Amino acid sequence: MIENIRYWDGFLPVELPERTKVLDISFLPRLPSIKQVENAVREALSSPTGMKTIPELVNSNKKVTIAFDDPCIPCGDTPRFRETMLLIILEELKKAGVPKRNIKLVCANGLHRKWTKRELSLTIGRSIVDEFGFRLLCHDAEDKDNLVYLGETKSGYEVEVNRLVADSDLVIYVNFMSNLFNGGWKSVNVGLSTYRSIRYTHGPGQLMGVPLELRLDRKRDPLHSVLDEMGERLEEALGKQVFKIETVCNNKVDVAAVFAGTVTSTRDKSLATQAEQVLLDLSGLEQSDILIYGLPRWMPYATFSETNPILNVIGMGLGYLLMLVELVLKKGGVVIMVSPCPNVWDEIHHPSYIEAWNRVLSQTRNPYEIRDLFEEDFAHRPEYIYKYRFCYAYHPVHALFILYNYYITTEYVGKVFVAGAQDPQVIRHMGFEPAKTVQEAICRAEELVGKDCSLSYMRYEFPGL
User: Fold this and answer.
1) Proportion of the chain in helix, strand, coil states, percent, rounded to 5
2) What whole-number distance in Å separates Cα of residue 159 and Cα of residue 6?
3) Cβ–Cβ under 8 Å, residues 434 and 424
4) Pick from 261, 235, 327, 266: which is nearest to 25 by CA?
5) Under DSSP, is residue 175 helix (H, G, I), strand (E, B) or coil?
6) Would you say 327 and 212 are in contact if contact means Cβ atoms under 8 Å apart?
7) Residue 96 belongs to domain spanning
8) Where is 166: in which H helix or E strand?
9) In whole angstroms, how far apart are CA 457 and each of 18, 111, 313, 356?
10) Among 56, 304, 396, 423, which residue has the fewest nearby CB atoms (within 10 Å)?
11) 55-64, 88-97, 177-186, 284-293: range with lowest mean pLDDT
């Protein structure tokens, strides 16, 4: 059987064994798209859950901050949909008499890089960027003067956020839910937070090994239970609630649902909207001994920039695909990725990745050793912090967060092959096995798991491709 496997910017025709099972799956449920998105947004804002409407919450004397997901979160008809959402919110504020000088927009980039005005124009629309000028900001997780520490949660998690969250009379957060990890309090307590708080949710293994039914339950999800606790502390310390607009996308990155209200209520509604279809989409999947899938050039953390071997194979191949890998691969099974994986590095946007490649991976690939030996060093390096704050670079610790995806190879996957790579040594440096072709990789995998092993090829759609 011939399959066109995704391969960088295109597809690679590959002959797979006839017994190969083709899995046509996606990251998001196949929910119907909303045809009149503007109407859905207005309807959600007219009856928010657990909160008053925006015009009822503010007046001409109030200060308002509107935060939104950064360009790493892909969302369908960009920028028109994001621009439409923000313009409707601005209309609501105008109804309440809030002057423009009292409104600020902040891109919730967390430890991602800051974004240029041009890039933001391609994300939320030129009209808004031009109108707000210097009142449109990117979050700076290292700007000590514009951060506020809100204390510890009952479990001892430290909560630190952008000062605008504390100083504004109303914070409105516009979220675009492109996968089950996003949404809820992750928007604020990661997107508008700092390393001091983010480290509690971005350690080795914290984003994997969680059954799907827990991911669909906010109260039992280990990631979001920590974030919820942080959110409780935030609202307790500030004595006010964050107004959340949670947008559910479908697997073609169109809008499927829009909810407004408190952070927890909108999160619960978005999960409930997805749950039945997600379980239906993924039910009946039989795990295989070998799993094959291709890697695109695109990766969320390479938006408006170039990817690199760490982002391509470890970030995209193991990180963003990890939930699907766990669902369809037997524990101890073999993964075969297909990618040219060129040895290319973006020195402007990903400078700490280069050191992680040369220094960290030369010493260890154990995610816990990486954390113990390097995390505090990388997190506080002044030369990298400067580039994060002023030169559009990712925060230095972000490279290590991606390397923590090695957890899946130490705890779940038995062996990883990368077929079709331009330079085999690049693959070996990451601790994986290079193969010239997919067929060669399959033959070598069969030597490990047996000639009568089961194979699956994962054909998927991913937001942004």
Assistant:
1) 40, 20, 35
2) 41
3) yes
4) 327
5) strand
6) yes
7) 37-281
8) helix 163-167
9) 11, 34, 17, 31
10) 56
11) 177-186
Which of 230, 252, 281 terminates a domain? The answer is 281
pLDDT for 213-264, tens place per residue? Answer: 777 788 888 889 999 999 999 999 999 999 999 998 876 668 889 999 999 9
Say if CB 340 and CB 436 are below 8 A apart.
no
- Tell me which residue of 144, 191, 201 sits closest to 171, measured CA to CA: 191
Residues 247 and 353 in one domain: no
Pairing of strands 147-152, 158-162: antiparallel
Q: What is the pLDDT of residues 60-91, one digit of tens each?
A: 999 999 999 999 976 555 568 889 999 999 99
Domain membership flag for residue 409: yes
Copy the structure tokens of residue 84.
Answer: 């439409």
Tokens coding 388? 């994060």
Separation between Cα atoms, residue 163 and residue 160, nearest integer Å = 9
Are 330 and 205 in a shared domain?
no
Tokens at 390, concatenated: 């002023």
CA dist., res. 425 & res. 372, Å (int): 27
Q: Is residue 31 part of a domain?
A: no
Please, what is the end-to-end C-alpha distance for the chain in angstroms? 25
* pLDDT single digits (tens) 123-172: 999 999 999 999 999 999 999 999 999 999 999 999 999 999 999 999 99
Do 98 and 243 have their domain in common? yes
- Write down the pLDDT at residue 58: 98
